C-alpha cells in the first residue's frame, strides 16, 4: 500500500507486509519515515491512497476502526482525565457490551498488570509509568485480536522503559495477540520483535528476525541503523591484480583477502577498481598483534584518537587512514543557513518536480563525499561535522592502557566483514547466500 497526504508526495511507498497471527512485528525507522502512518492505516484511522489492507485475508480498506477489533496504545497514554483508572480500563468494555458489568474483566486485567492499587486513582495522581500501565490495561481488557502500539514507552525514563519493555514482551507472549509496535529505538525493536521491519523515507528496507537484520543487513542504512556502537563504514576500493592477492584498499591501508578466496570474496572480483563501502561492526576488529592472528583475521593498524571509558568496556576511536562513508538520514542534523531568495525559488522548483514525480522522499542510502577519488592516496580522513575524530571504533576491555596518539595493531575478522556497493547495497556476504540464519 501507499499513502500520500499531499497530492503526489508519498509518505509510504508501496509497502507490502504480511503479519502472521500472534506475531510481534516492530516497525522501526527514524523520525518521519512513515511508521505511524502505516500503523494508522492498519487501525483504519487513515485510508491507503493506493493498495489494500487485508484483515484475516479479507479486504478491509473501508472497515471502520471500531469494527476492526484492534486496540491502540499511544505514546501520550490518552487516558480520560476525569475518569479513574477503573473507569478508563472499563470504558471500552462498556461501549462494547452496554449493560454488562465490566468489573470482573477490569479486576482481572489490573491483576495481570499489577495495578490493583491504582484503580481508584485519576490520571493526574499517577506517574508516567503507571499511566502507561493503565493505558495498556484499557487495551488488554477488551481482548482485541491485535494490539497497535505507537512508541508507548517514549515518554518514560530509561529504567522504567526497560522494565515496561520486559512487561510488554511477557504480556503479549502470554496473551498471544498479534502486535504491531512502532519505535525509532533499535534496541527496543531488537529486544521485542519476532520480526523487525526497517523503514526509511516511507520505503521498506528490510523485514526479518532481529538476528537476520543484524547479521545480514540488506543495505548500508539497515546496517547503520541497527546495533550499538554504530557499524564502522569505510570507503574502500577493490583491488584485484592478475598477479597478486586480492585486497580492499582503505586509503592508507588494505585488507588482504586470504587465499584461497572464499566464494563471497571471489564474487568481489567484478568490483575491481570500483568504490565500495566496507562495514565492520565493533566485534569484527580487535586490538592484537599480527602474530596473534587466527585464521581469517588480517592485520591493520590505527592511531588512537579518543578513548571512551564505559566502565565494563572501552570504545577506542582510531584513525586508520581511511575515509568514512556517510549515511545521510543518520548523521547529526547540520545547522541550516537561511536560504537566499534564489535558493528558496530553486527549492520550490525542486518540490514541484518531486511532486510531479509522485515520490520519493528517500534519497540515496549513502553519500560518498568525493566520488571518483577513492583510490587516491589521501592520508587524512575527512572528519564529518559533529563527529568524533577517527574512522574506526573498536570495543575493548578496560585493561588496555590506551592513550591518545598511540599506534596500535589491529586484527580484522573477515568472517564479520560486510561489503556494500557504491549505492549501499550489500554484496558480501552475497545476498543470494543465506547461511542457516535465514529462517
Ligand atoms: N496528517 C498529515 N498530513 C500531512 N502530512 C502528514 C500527516 N501525518 C504525517 N504526515 C507526514 O508524513 C510523514 C510520515 O509521518 P509519520 O508520523 O508516519 O512518521 P513516523 O515515522 O511515525 O515519525 P515519528 O517517529 O516522528 O512519529 C512525515 O513527513 C509527516 O510530516
Automatic annotation (TrEMBL):
Pfam families in the record: ABC_tran (PF00005), TOBE_2 (PF08402)
UniProt-listed PROSITE patterns: ABC_TRANSPORTER_1 (PS00211), ABC_TRANSPORTER_2 (PS50893)
Protein name in the entry: Sugar ABC transporter ATP-binding protein
Region ranges (Disordered): 326-352, 369-390
MF terms (GO), sorted A to Z: ABC-type transporter activity; ATP binding; ATP hydrolysis activity
Domain of life (superkingdom): Bacteria
Keyword Amino-acid biosynthesis: no
Domain called ABC transporter: residue spans: 1-226
Comp. bias intervals (Basic and acidic residues): 370-380
GO cellular component, one term: ATP-binding cassette (ABC) transporter complex, substrate-binding subunit-containing
Record-linked SMART domains: AAA (SM00382)
Keywords: ATP-binding, Nucleotide-binding, Transport
Amino acid at each position: 500500500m501507499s499513502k500520500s497526504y499531499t497530492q503526489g508526495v508519498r509518505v509510504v511507498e508501496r509497502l507490502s507486509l504480511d503479519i502472521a497471527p500472534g506475531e510481534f512485528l516492530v516497525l522501526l525507522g527514524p523520525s518521519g519515515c512513515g511508521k505511524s502512518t502505516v500503523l494508522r492505516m492498519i487501525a483504519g484511522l487513515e485510508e491507503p491512497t493506493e493498495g489494500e489492507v487485508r484483515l484475516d485475508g479479507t479486504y478491509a480498506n473501508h472497515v471502520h476502526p471500531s469494527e476492526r477489533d484492534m486496540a491502540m496504545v499511544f505514546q501520550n497514554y490518552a487516558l480520560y482525565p476525569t475518569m479513574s483508572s477503573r473507569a478508563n480500563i472499563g470504558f471500552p468494555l462498556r461501549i462494547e457490551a452496554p449493560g454488562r458489568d465490566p468489573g470482573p474483566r477490569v479486576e482481572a486485567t489490573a491483576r495481570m498488570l499489577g495495578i490493583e492499587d491504582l484503580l481508584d486513582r485519576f490520571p493526574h495522581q499517577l506517574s508516567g509509568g503507571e499511566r502507561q500501565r493503565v493505558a495498556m490495561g484499557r487495551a488488554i481488557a477488551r481482548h482485541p485480536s491485535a494490539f497497535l502500539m505507537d512508541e508507548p514507552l517514549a515518554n518514560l525514563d530509561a529504567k522504567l522503559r526497560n522494565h515496561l519493555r520486559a512487561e510488554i514482551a511477557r504480556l503479549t507472549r502470554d496473551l498471544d495477540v498479534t502486535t504491531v509496535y512502532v519505535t525509532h529505538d533499535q534496541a527496543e525493536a531488537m529486544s521485542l520483535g519476532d520480526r523487525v521491519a526497517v523503514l526509511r523515507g516511507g520505503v521498506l528496507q528490510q523485514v526479518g528476525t532481529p538476528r537476520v537484520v543484524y547479521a545480514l543487513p540488506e543495505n548500508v542504512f539497515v546496517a547503520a541503523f541497527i546495533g550499538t556502537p554504530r557499524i564502522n563504514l569505510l570507503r574502500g576500493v577493490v583491488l584485484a591484480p592478475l598477479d597478486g592477492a586480492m585486497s580492499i584498499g582503505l586509503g592508507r591501508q588494505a585488507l588482504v583477502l586470504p587465499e584461497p578466496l572464499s566464494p563471497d570474496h571471489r564474487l568481489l572480483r567484478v568490483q575491481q577498481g570500483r568504490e565500495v563501502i566496507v562495514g565492520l561492526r565493533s566485534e569484527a576488529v580487535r586490538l592484537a598483534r599480527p602474530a596473534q592472528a587466527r585464521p581469517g583475521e588480517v592485520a591493520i593498524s590505527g592511531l588512537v584518537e579518543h578513548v571512551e571509558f564505559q566502565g565494563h568496556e572501552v570504545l577506542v576511536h582510531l584513525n586508520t587512514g581511511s575515509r568514512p562513508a556517510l549515511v545521510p538520514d543518520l548523521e547529526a542534523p547540520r545547522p541550516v543557513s537561511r536560504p537566499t531568495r534564489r535558493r528558496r525559488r530553486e527549492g520550490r522548483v525542486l518540490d514541484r518536480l518531486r511532486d510531479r514525480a509522485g515520490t520519493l522522499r528517500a534519497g540515496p542510502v549513502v553519500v560518498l563525499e568525493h566520488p571518483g577519488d577513492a583510490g587516491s592516496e589521501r592520508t587524512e580522513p575527512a572528519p564529518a561535522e559533529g563527529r568524533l575524530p577517527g574512522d574506526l571504533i573498536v570495543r575493548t576491555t578496560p585493561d588496555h592502557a590506551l592513550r591518545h596518539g598511540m599506534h596500535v595493531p589491529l586484527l580484522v575478522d573477515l568472517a564479520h566483514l560486510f561489503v556494500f556497493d557504491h549505492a549501499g547495497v550489500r554484496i558480501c556476504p552475497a545476498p543470494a547466500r543465506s547461511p542457516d540464519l535465514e529462517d
